[in-house]
Amino acid sequence: MSSVVLQISCVAGLLGIAVLAIILSRAKTSTTIIYCATTAVSLVALFGSIRFLVGEAPNPSGLVLPVGLPWLGAHFRLDALASFFLVVVNLGGASASLYGLGYGHHDPAPHRVLPFFPAFLAGMNLVVLADDAFSYLLCWEFMSLASWALVMAHHRESGNAKAGYVYLVMASFGTLALLLAFGLLAGPTGDYGFAAIRAARHTPYVATLVLILMLLGAGSKAGLVPLHVWLPLAHPAAPSHVSALMSGVMTKVAIYGFIRVIFDLLGQPIWPASVVVLFLGGITAVMGILYALMEKDLKRLLAYSTIENIGVIFASLGLALAFQANGQKLAAALAFTAALFHVLNHSFFKSLLFFGAGAVLTATGERDMDKLGGLIHRMPFTSFVVLVGCVAISALPPFNGFVSEWLMFQAVLQSPELPQWALKIMVPAVGALLALAAALAAACFVKAFGVTFLGRPRSTAAETAHEVDRYSLSAMIILAALCLLAGILPGLVIDALAPITIDILGGRMPIQANEPWLSIAPIAESRSSYNGLLVMIFITLSASLSVFVIHRFASHAVRRGPAWGCGFSDPTPAAQYSAGSFAQPIRRVFGTLVFRARDHVDMPAPGDVRPARFRIELHDLVWEGIYLPIVGAVGFSSDRLNRLQFLTIRRYLSLVFATLVTLLLVLAIWS
Amino acid sequence: MQMHSLAFDISHTLAGGLVLISFMMLYQDRLYSLLNVFALHAVVLALSVAWQAYIQDAPHLYITAVIALVFKAIVIPVALHRIVKQLGIHRDIESAVSIGLTMLAGMALVALSMVLMLRVTADADPLAREDLAFALSVVLLGLLVMVTRRNAVSQVVGFMSLENGLVLAATGAKGMPLVVEISVAFSILIAFIVIGIFLFRIRERFDSVDVSALDDYRGERR
Predict the structure, then answer these.
(1) What is the extent of the structural domain holding B169?
(2) Which of A503, B41, B93, B200 has its CA 20 to 30 A from that of A205?
(3) ipTM greater than 0.90, yes or no?
């Protein structure tokens, strides 16, 4: 059976499971059956795509199904790029299904989740496989609608309805942009097959318009600032394993769309395109993580952090565009590999962290970090794997996050070889933004982990929490292990990505398998190299050694003394360092500019017994500056246009008549 | 050659006559005279279609011509006469928009359709070209009649004359299947029946077929 047929059969299986879920919707065992089935199918699809990607010389294989438009059919094709994203999708799908086996039992309304979960997975698989614009858009909409239904699964909780609405509006906007982009690509001949689009030559004018439209279309789904507004609303509203899929996988499908069109279909890029992508990527990374730092809702924090990572990936893609436009294949392959590697990594650790947030939610019923704390004693396994996820997303060695960001900075360091001065200046500036984002991400996840898992419980719910079930834990442990594996064996991943860079860019990074001791050398060993395994051995050895030294040579006597209470003797748990207080220095430095943050202290007069109050004022300038005016304008014009509902028959006739005459006039003047 | 030129002249005359009669419709302010002009309109249309059938050597167009003659020149005007009589509105005078203004607008519309059609169909058969330009004028004038009248009966007449323009365009183009023309004719007949029933319903409820009564009923100011 050819690989593409296998993938399509898996999709058909997933759709079948969705139908089965509708039939079984009220049965007690439905949760177990459905998630078992999706795990199995996702695993089959996962191994199929891995075999295709790392097997010798992955040859693209296509398939035409006689569905869809009668004279067109639906074209599907599996090539190296698609197979890589299928690995991401199905790995996320399999782990989320495994997690769902345990987590799904806590769901108050499983029949609102179960049918859409496999459908959502099928939609994402189909988008990656689609090989003509029509099936691409159809599958894209299918994916969006399925995820929308999942966002609306708990529709009675406050805020979820708004989240669903904003998501729907932004998704329609994004699809409109994609529709126009594909329309431009197909051109006057109107052949919507990707093969024909790839073969056609596109004028710079069309290429620029397509780039803008793709940034709007794929960017709104991926969460580029300022199109990100739906993401922190919708991702947390869904059940946690779906949040993991939306954040860790669906955003990657959007990136796939961007890569497919901009790198593959448009052909040779022009260098000004890279400036736009670089700039947006850098801004997105910094803004995303600043938003995350201000947040005290665990799942919203993770959603904002997704925006940051999307920014990092887009910045790497921008670098790849810049090098590709100048024909520097090696550097382009390096930046492109860094982007793809980060796509993979982010799907690992963001899924892991959302699973962890879901576990905390199951155990305590809380998402507000200021009501959590001390969970490390009550949920030791969850705490450990979430710690692994936090270290990985903070880009610390020896985990995978470090490798991809390191590769990206290696690509940034190649920028002096670019001929254009604009890029020579721009790339290091974006590099600085990315470095800032990386540092802020570390601070953000110190806050997320510290406030949630360390310290003392801030509520009874946190005090009485229990470890979650085995299925959820095993899903998280598998992802944590993958984070470590990808971190210490990066050469394997880089070599596996080589067929893609050869396909898309026509160049590749040096073969890493030949490097001694599993190290990686992106350009040449004399320039720079990294060895995750050695770093891990060093960290393990030095940490064990220092623990041994401390315990061996320090005093064994246990001394009991009064704990330092920061000036508050016998503090209540609520007086601990909170999420807001941790972020305060950063709020002071960046927030006054980016969020117009103000601290309001209401201190009672001496002798007054009412409590002092402290209030933080934050403004989301993107929402207030862009979206609220648009909402206002739409509201204003619909108020005005409302009168059209109540015209007389003659007025309606006159309107039709006037429109007709105007159109004829336009034709008469311009034809 | 001489024959062709004569054929062209006659069809040109008939189509032009149709436009002229459309103009006549614009300034009829009595319902009976409007209906009479409409009947004349339909007769000229039937002649024009028959002439097209003759010069295109397309016998099925004779059927269209007969349909136009029977239904539009006889059945519908007679039926409308009776409706007007039953409703007792044959003395009503309409004054929505002044006649001078309407005539000016009509001239502008004819000019527009000439300019547009002659330019768009630059490389078409000259016969079809002229025909299409006239047909578009008739359609636009029919719409103008609908827009400038208040009385429901005259709006119906405007609609019917608009349809005459469509038939003119359809017959001018060679190879239009008979099925299409017959189905158009029948849809018009059905529309006429539906509108006729509605006229009586409106009348029953509001004591008038002036459509402004409907607006008063909806509580709208105009």
Answers:
(1) 2-217
(2) A503
(3) no
